[in-house]
């Protein structure tokens, strides 16, 4: 019996303990490089990059294809090949076909990635890629003179082919329908004079268009104390409000329009009845502008806006330094409503407060805001006023226009915000369309958008730098930036984004200032006005063209 009990006790074992659960060790990212350069974000890479990602453990290859993705920002998947190194700790990814230029891509290694020990990746790894610009020329290379001809002729079409059919005035932009712009039409008038001189149209064609424009302005267009609104309906001549309180006179826009009209008056100097009548009609418009009335009660400053029902609600004084020097030059030159010098001294110049004198990027700036402001400050007034050798108590304007332009160019080369694409080939900050809106770009308001008009319209001041930019815009970006009316308004290589818009106030300076660089045509015409010579001298200006 004892034997039996002992035998039974041997067969009855203690229960085994629960075996431990073994969790595969997780693993982590160790290193990342693209074409041998480390970092999680890469701009300007080639279209066949090699992306190398290293992990702390060898990878389970079966998990790679389903857990590494390669996509464009629009969600388009990119096919790629993978190879391995470092005992399978490093995966090397290469697209099977060339990527698109100027396109953003993301390569993502997700947490579903496994190691050979079946461990999971602790956190996802993402690398951002932005491919480089296609450096191939988009158009055949031609001589510099032929290129300038082409740019002027194509830009001229905006004002000639796309001018409003009833009034002949310039549409505000290529999507504006019947809305025409006063200032842009002044630029368009100067473009017509240029077009005749260049042989794009005949003198008789230009005269006929000018008769249409001047007749509409004299007999149909709304005027307020002789001044025109910013926008008009090109069919009816009625004011189109620019804003709630800006539904009447705009003295700056009126000045830009008058700058063009006086230039045309000097050009159409024939003794025949048609050209004589045209000059008389222009003089009627010119003499009807009550510049002195915009002193708002004999103040020593001019005001920008006035409305029949809003009065002086905008209450914006015209003070320098900006694009509006032309207003004071014309106001002082008026045969009928001239302003005295103290309005210029106390209003525009603020008794010298518009002076700057600081140095930016090695260039001293005589006038204006820090780093100069947008470049249209040096274009609009100087489409007619020749700054060469021009001085007054506050500045040498040849120095001013060049200094401002060089600061703008050097800022873009320095590129303190690190925008992709800025360079000595690609520069120019001014007012333009931007993605989703409009802004006055400058070194102190830089959103990464370049406007071709900024550099090209500065051709008289910085010919070498401007020509370099022009060639880049045309040859390297022409497939995206060149259209029916010349260069589109603006672009960003950093986004990337390219406008499809044209604006009269940006197209006009391109053709006009290029002509001033080449021949001085518009400068010579405008500065030949006897009223301008007297008026600017009265303000204290001196120079070889007065």
Summarize the model shown:
This protein is α+β, with helices and mostly antiparallel strands. Helix content is 34%, strand content 15%.
Please, could you describe this protein's structure?
This protein is α+β, with helices and mostly antiparallel strands and 546 residues long. It has two domains: 29-131, Immunoglobulin-like; 144-538, Glycosyltransferase (Alpha/alpha barrel). The protein contains 16 helices and 22 strands. The chain has helices at 2-11, 64-67, 144-160, 182-198, 203-219, 251-267, 273-287, 325-333, 341-348, 397-414, 452-456, 463-476, 478-481, 504-518, 521-527, 530-538, and strands spanning 29-34, 37-38, 41-45, 51-55, 68-72, 80-85, 90-95, 104-109, 125-131, 179-181, 231-233, 239-240, 249-250, 305-306, 359-360, 363-364, 431-434, 437-440, 482-483, 486-487, 491-492, 497-498. The chain has a five-stranded antiparallel β-sheet with strand order 2-1-4-7-6, with no helix packed on it. Strand 6 (80-85) and strand 7 (90-95) form a beta hairpin. Helix 3 (144-160) runs antiparallel to helix 14 and helix 4 packs parallel to helix 6 (251-267). The termini are far apart. Residues 1-11 have low confidence and may be disordered.
Give the topology, please.
Blueprint: H1 2-11, E1 29-34, E2 37-38, E3 41-45, E4 51-55, H2 64-67, E5 68-72, E6 80-85, E7 90-95, E8 104-109, E9 125-131, H3 144-160, E10 179-181, H4 182-198, H5 203-219, E11 231-233, E12 239-240, E13 249-250, H6 251-267, H7 273-287, E14 305-306, H8 325-333, H9 341-348, E15 359-360, E16 363-364, H10 397-414, E17 431-434, E18 437-440, H11 452-456, H12 463-476, H13 478-481, E19 482-483, E20 486-487, E21 491-492, E22 497-498, H14 504-518, H15 521-527, H16 530-538
Helix pairs in contact: 3-4, 3-14, 4-5, 4-6, 4-14, 5-7, 6-7, 6-15, 8-16
